Here is the input.
Amino acid sequence: MIYFILICILFLLMIGASVYAIIQKDLLYAVMATGIISLILSILYYLLQAPDVALTEAAIGVALTTIIFVITIRNTVRMEDESDKKEKFKSAVK
Amino acid sequence: MDSTLFHYLDYAVYGTAILVMLIGFYGTMVKKSLLKIVISLSVIDSGLNLLIVTIGYYKGGTAPIFSPGFLKNFKDVSKMVDPIPQALVLTAIVIGFGVTAVALALVIRLYRHHGTLNIDEIKNLKW
Amino acid sequence: MKKVLVILLLAVLGYYTAATFFDIGFGQPHFIKGLEPVKDIYLAQTVKTLKVSNAVTSIVVNFRGFDTLGEVTVLFLAVTVLGSVLYKKRHEVGERSVLFSASSIVTSGSKLLFPAIILLGAYVFIHGHLSPGGGFQGGVIIATGFLLMLLSYENYSVSHTALSVVESLAGITFAGVGLLGFLHGGTFLQNFLPTGVLNNLFSGGIIPIIYIAVGFKVGAELTGVIYTVLHEKGQSNG
Here is the structure.
């Protein structure tokens, strides 16, 4: 029973994080949500008896993909609609 | 009562994976920002990998590693989880990282050339 | 209007995908009765002939070794495309796009952690045929260690020549071990070395050699990706 509730919480968190990653206008928060998806995914792989895949997903999805997205956002724009990018970006960096 | 709950859980695994995939597809079709589209592609990747690993799972199965304890106690190979989808997903995750890196490099290049990431302003690519 | 159309399309797609997968069933053995599934043959051969403990490693390197060779090639092509898309003139090299310098806690802590991360990565890919892990995981862990150093030290640099030499040597080892199978009188990537005893470090024939080569190659390639993207100069608004 407790196992069932924990798994359901993981599923709901994963769906919620993916919805948040799509609808969020601030791209930095969206990238953090994809990192959360990868973290939950590596726990699920471990529960599905796939330790090799869990190791790979934890290393690539959480660390490397997130940092590459963050560097790209740093080099381009942070907001999705770009109408007020100058002010938002300056306040974010300072 | 417990068995019915676990029956629902069976559908919940597939349902979550497919739902995450569909959310990613929605993002690729509706969103205008190029970076958002790349984020959606990575979300699709996550759901698809979970779906493929889930096919190979067996109830009560062990991980496909022949530890000394397994060899002493069980000795039954058919009690193990299917290792082939795991091997496929293992390579797919690494390839997905390479694809994401190349896509982001192209995004940086496009931003340098056009000064915007909105796909409507770059070209009439959307329907 | 467009969103409604997209949601309708996705509903149809989701219905048929879900119907297919619910038919397969979760956690049930879904094979035809009377036929032996391929996973049982792979698992039995893994433990009986190859003497490898980790079945995923034996499938990735031995049964599907050609696939792995192609995958490593795709990764190499991704690094090449990344370098050519983000090209820059020679005098602009060396400007880091991340502006902030790290605090002294981060710098001294990362100096302490870096050898431990590299050691963990090497352990993971050397013991790939005995425990969970392998070349891909170990290479990624090593790349994470270099990422930590690149983020905490502003003028920490990785030599591109050394990276390409390591990468080429690892690739030549992979293909050369495969070609030695030809000389031994078999097929490409044939397991021609003695397989040894199960659960020993020296077991499995050519599998540990190839996975160590893959570990070096993946580590060098991903470090190159991070280095290239991190040294991308920022636009004027940043």
The radius of gyration of chain B is 21 Å. The domain at 2-122 of chain B is CATH 1.10.287.3510 (Helix Hairpins). Chain B touches chain C through 52 residues (CB under 8 Å). The CA atoms of residues 116 and 122 of chain B lie 7 Å apart.
